[in-house]
Amino acid sequence: MTARIPPGPRLLLERLAEAGYEAHLVGGCVRDLLRGAEPQDWDICTSALPQQTRACFANFPLLETGIRHGTVAVGVDGVFYEITTYRRDGPYSDGRRPDAVSFVPDLTQDLARRDFTINAMALDLDGALHDPFGGRADLAAGVVRCVGEPERRFQEDGLRLLRALRFSACLDFAIHPATAAAIARTLPMLDRVAAERIQTELRKLIVGPRRAQVLREFPQVLCRFWPQLEPLVGLEQHNPHHCYGGWEHTLHALAAAPAEEVICLAVLLHDIGKPPCKTTDEAGIDHFYGHPAVSAQLADQMLRALKFDNATRERVVALVERHDAPIHPTEKSVRRWLGRLGEEAFFQLLEVKRCDCLGQDPRLSEERLAATRALKDLARQVIAQGQCFSLKDLAVNGRDVLAAGVPAGPQVGRALAELLDQVVAGTLPNDKAALLQALPHLPIDP
Ligand code: ATP
Ligand code: MG
Fold it and tell me: Is residue 6 part of a domain?
């Protein structure tokens, strides 16, 4: 197992040991090495105080932004590794970082501050494993369990509730019963956690293989920071297309999604606007007219609240808004959609639609699934044939249009848009001479 430790961290561990300090790999990388997965990052903990670590690596590039919390990042071959002094954390009153940390002399105390047993192990270069809380056994059994008394650990830092769900979703592990019970009792702790920290964990949770089961078991954790979810969790839908309530439908759809962040978020939020749009007709059938637009509005609000970046938020909102839009299975209509959304978003939309079908009554969704598959084939064909659906595919550009006598200014853009429109519609061929010939007849005057 130690053979898989790369040269960078190896060198750092050796240097610290040569200088007379204890040093170990710790946390996520040890867990991942033990379960045979590729570690994301290589964290080191040491008995050396931050100044001593710094002195040890005087000739290396150093990042000292975390030094007050005991962390020095050392660069080896362009990669920075975090080396943290054994420490105990004070309270996290700002929900971001502990108010104060105190350095402690021994490894076991450092491991005791860590969240879950599977994350509280340290490994040495010679293969010795330090595992005072039974992390290895929990890893083998597939269990997420708090180090120490769960309720107290969640009271210290509310983010740990969400981290428990994240590790359960990503590792496909069960949450230990006492840890699960403590989650239910400490939900208000999430109110104090910074939005950015919640976002980071949620992004990982949502693509984890066990996400749907975890959300089925713990919807109240997400509802705590996203109260807009709550009505969906209780939504009944008496409608021939649906054999599930709103939440169960969402979870079935989510389980079918590829592990791609924007698709998973869009699927999670696609029906969030259903509850306020619900009406029931005389026959007792529920309808949700206009729900995609309401879903999009709520999704926008929810992603803003967690401070998601604009690109992710806008893409998710666009997918949610169009999840129910009819797309005609013709080349012309597919060209229009490809032009409007771009290739990537269009294929993502087809995925969202596919997942939506898979969350419905299987006897009724087959036809809609086949339609989605046909659209995907059609779009692939339109692209493979080099058909024109965006300005960059058009046989003329701004310079051509100017040279043909269109005056500089907004008319150039309007002329190109009009030509593209006609090419996409099939009323003009994508041919330079033909397009320039059509130019004088276009309605582009201001
Ligand atoms: P990943 O592989 O996704 O990075 P990780 O276990 O490395 O998972 P990090 O968030 O990178 O998770 O944290 C590194 C280690 O720090 C964890 O393994 C855990 O030991 C400890 N840790 C992180 N966050 C907390 C927390 N909120 N409370 C207690 N310990 C924590
Ligand atoms: Mg990590």
Answer: yes
The dihedral sign for the CA sequence 369, 375, 376, 381: positive
Summary count for the chain: helices (H), strands (E): 23, 13
Residue 429 in contact with residue 405, Cβ under 8 Å? no
Residue 43 within a domain: yes
> What is the arithmetic mean of pLDDT over 387-413?
94
Looking at the 3D structure of the chain, how many domains does it have? 2
**27 CA to middle of ligand 1, Å?**
6
Atom index in ligand 1 nearest the CA of residue 157 equals 27
Q: Phi and psi at residue 81, in whole multiples of 5°?
A: -120, 140
Amino acid in the structure at residue 108: T
Select from 114, 123, 144, 193 the residue to mutate for testing ligand 1; criterion: most ligand atoms less than 8 Å from CB. Answer: 114
Ligand number nearest to the C-alpha of 114:
1
Give a yes or no: residue 172 inside a domain. Answer: no
CATH number of domain containing 412: 1.10.246
CA 233 to centroid of chain Cα atoms: 21
Neighbours of 40 (CB within 10 A): 9
79-85, strands of its sheet edge to edge: 62-63, 71-76, 79-85, 43-46, 23-26, 122-123, 129-130
Query: What's 407's DSSP letter?
Result: P
Between the CA of 311 and the centroid of ligand 1 the distance, in Å, is: 27
Mean pLDDT over 362-374 rounds to: 90
pLDDT band, very low/low/confident/very high, at 446 (cuts 50, 70, 90): low
Q: What is the average pLDDT across 22-37?
A: 97
Cα–Cα dist 172/402, whole Å: 60
Last residue of one domain, picked from the residues 92, 113, 141: 141
- The pLDDT tens digits of the residues spanning 275-331 come to 999 999 999 999 999 999 999 999 999 999 999 999 999 999 999 999 999 999 999
Residue 374 lies in a domain: no
Residue spans of beta strands (DSSP E) within 168-239: 174-175
- CATH number, domain of 13, equals 3.30.460.10
Domain boundary among 111, 141, 171: 141
**What's residue 292's pLDDT?**
98
Residues in contact with ligand 1 by the CB-under-6-Å rule are: 27-28, 40-41, 43, 114-115, 119-120, 157, 159-160
Each residue's pLDDT tens digit, 205-241:
999 999 999 999 999 999 999 999 999 999 999 988 8
Q: What is the pTM of this model?
A: 0.94
Domain that holds residue 81: 2-141
